[in-house]
Structures are given as C-alpha cells and as structure tokens.
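#help-structures
NK: newbie question, is this the right format to request a structure? protein is 2-oxoisovalerate dehydrogenase subunit alpha
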Amino acid sequence: MSLLRSASVLAGRLASRNQLALKCLTTRAIHGEAQSSEPATGLAKFPGAQAAFVGKPTLVLPEHVESVPIYRVMNADGVIEDASQDPGLSREVVHKMFRDMVLLNTMDKILYESQRQGRISFYMTNFGEEASHIGSAAALSPEDWVYGQYREAGVLVWRGFTISDFINQCYGNREDEGKGRQMPVHYGSKKLNFVTISSPLGTQIPQAVGAAYAFKRQPDNQRVVITYFGEGAASEGDAHAAFNFAATLDCPVMLFCRNNGFAISTPSKEQYRGDGIAGRAAGYGIATLRFDGTDIFAVYNATKMAREYVLKNNKPIVMEAMQYRISHHSTSDDSTAYRPAEDLEIWNTTEHPISKLKNFMKQRGWFDEAAEGAHVKAIRKQVLAQINQSEKIPKADWRETFQDVYHEMPQHLRDQMKQMEEHIEKHKEHYPLKDFKN
C-alpha cells in the first residue's frame, strides 16, 4: 500500500507540473488557426521564437514557401500596366532620368575602350543596370548617405558628379578627389554624401548599418542610409552580420541588392539556394521589397516606399532589384567563357532599361530622336576631350601617400616619409617623377 500511495503522489505531482509548464509555455492563439492538419493548442512563449503548437511534426520545405513577388510598373513596350502605379513624374524629371542613363551608358563605352587601349588599369561598366541606379537615386534625399559597392556610378551621375570627376578618378591624377589612391571606378564624394568605394566585397554593408544607427540616435533625424551590393556579395559574412545588426538594432538602413544574375563568373543558380536575397529578409525579421530593376518607375516607387518605411519606423528593409548584367563583370573578365552570347540579346534590346523608358517617352510625345542623337554626340565629345585632358594632368605628390591618415602626422609616418625621400633622391632615375606633382 505504501508503494501505491507513493506512486499516486508522484503521478499527481507530475500532472501538476505538466499543467504549470503548459500554462507557462502557451497562450491563447490570437492570430487565427495554425496552418496544419492538427489544431493549435496555443502560441509558444519560448524566448527564441513564438509560433503555434501543433500535434504532429511539420516539415517546411523551401518549395512550400511562396516566393516574394516582383513589382513592376511598365512592360517592355513602356506601357504602365496599372495607372495607379504611375509615379506622376514631370516631363523634366523623366527627361533627366533618361539623359542620365544615356550619359552613363555612353561614358561606360568610351572608358571601357580606354582601358582596352592601356590608358587606364581597370574599368567596370553598368550596362543593363542603369535604371536601378537612377531610379533609386531619384527617390532619395540628397542628404541621405550612400554606401556603394562598385557598380552604382549612376547614383553619382544623378547627384551631380561630373564627367571630369569620373575621368579624373579613373586616371588617378591630382584633380581626383581621392588623390589617385584608389583603383579606377572606386568613386567617393563627401559633398554628395557618397562614401568612397572599397574593393573587398560586402565591407560597406555593416558600415552602412553602423552609420544608420548613428543617425537614429540623433534627435529629429530625417536621413537614412542606403547601401548597394550584388547577390554575390550577399553571401559574404559581412552581409549576414549586417542584416542581423540592422534588425536587432532597428536601424534606418535600406539594404539594396542588385541581383544581376552573376557573381563575377558564377551564375546565381550556382551561387545560392532559396528565393534570392529578398527571401532571406523574413528570416532576419526584416521587411522586404522585390522589384523589376530594368523598370525605372518600379525602382523609383519601391525606393520611395522603402525610404518612407525606414524613416517612419526606424527599421531596416531589404530591397532586391531583379536585372541582368549585360556587360562582362569587369575588364578582368570574359563573360563569353561562362554564358552564350545569345542570352544577352533580349536583355540588350526589349528588356533594356533605356529602351523601356524611351518607349514610354515616345508614347507621351516626350522623345525627340534628333535631340537625343545630338545629346549622345555631345557627351562623346565631352568624354573624349576630358580623357585627353586628364591624361596630361600630373599625379598627386607622392608624399601625400603618408598624409590624410591622421589629423596630425605621427612620428613613425614622418620617419617613413623621410626614408622614402632619401631613397627616391638616391635612385630617382628609376622613378617617373615627371608624372607627379612637384
């Protein structure tokens, strides 16, 4: 009898504990029934996640999760499919969008050939991605900070970076704001709130999150931060760390992915699994928008909406512009080695962002073929003239290599500069000193 009584007492205690545990771990389901064949018994209150309890194990496969839709405003013929999505931009603004895309496209062609002629060391074109640059830049405030990767030259075009600014940077002369210290196409402009580009992939993403956090802590902040990166850079550890910090610290940052289909020579289908980059946002607890990156109005509307959301809520957003990289990755790449030339045909014609906007302008009666032809010729003339001039401008004084690192140059850098001066004086016949500013 004593053994039976002990067992009975133990069973009672276990039942009591189970009821207490159930009470602590569940709450009444307030979000409707769980999507399962078994009824939910409540929402779990685990610190790590809250979800409905179900009576049977539920295996969630990637193909069971609905893909993030791609927002589009106009089709390949330049027709706005839903009048409510017309951004209502003036003729002057649309005209500037078109001309800025044409300027970027024309400048790219000439500077690419300049590299092939051995006049500069490196270049990257933006063919096929012009709309994601110009469309997003037009929706931002000039006060917003930009952290680019290396294929966002159109953002600078929109903000007022001149042809001479671009070419002086690529030629690394003393007129370059960076004093020739960066590779070509690694632009930066303090006055345009465009942080200088750095070569290592993904480093700009956590930096942008940190800047956004700093803005958030300022009273009455009206600025956001946007950072651009490719789908290849999104596989870097920096990107994942940045996403997590942005989410947990509620940073007003726009995480803008240019998914152009290729990470250098690796197609996206080989580079990642899952629903692109937008599909990762929910896993980090971040809002997301995916849109047609060849449709400048879709880019503009999406960026405008994203900026309003980020500023109002002090939260991040992941943006994914779906587009196609028409050009080689850079002058160090030959894309014919990993994709057939015929794949480019549709993206370089009917699906090209410049062609789409041109079709739209024609329908509105805003396009003048002769005027645009003259515009292209004028750009070519200006670019070629600037290249001729930039080649003749000396490089910055080589001593400036040691400057601008500290507010006051420390002694060890002074010593190094002195050693360099003595070395060059002793072996000056081996250095092209005539190419540098005295």
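mod (FA): yep, format's fine, and the tokens are attached above. The first helix runs from residue 2 to 25.
NK: thank you!
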